[in-house]
Predict the structure.
Amino acid sequence: MRRWTLFVSLGLLAPALAAAEALPPRAQLALERGNPRTEERLAALYDQGRGMAPDPVVAVALYRDAARRGSGAAQLNLAQMYLAGRGVPPDPVEAYAWADAAAANGEPGGEHIIDQLATVMPKVQRERARSRAARYVELYVSDFSSS
């Protein structure tokens, strides 16, 4: 719970904490332990506004946490958030890097984003994206299965 307290003290995830408190005890425990599936599912609730007002900023923070723990689904959703500029400024380099990590984790939508961006990015930006993607794959690709 210490990690959530830090975010709340910064005012970044107060709504997520309130939603987490309303979760069943097993889900709360999984969230406190940093379970990427639970983080990704809570992020999706904020992203899509299911049962609450949509909050893309909170969704991005939760997706990022789950993505850094190896959730391919969270990586794909984070790539889409950066691509569309939902909850974060649009950033095609960051979108490409997270999409590549998602693809390496078995998420087929990652390849689609990579192909889409590769056709419109200038060469210098594409090279930066590939470099960042290689780093993300090394750091954030795991045996975690998002299916």
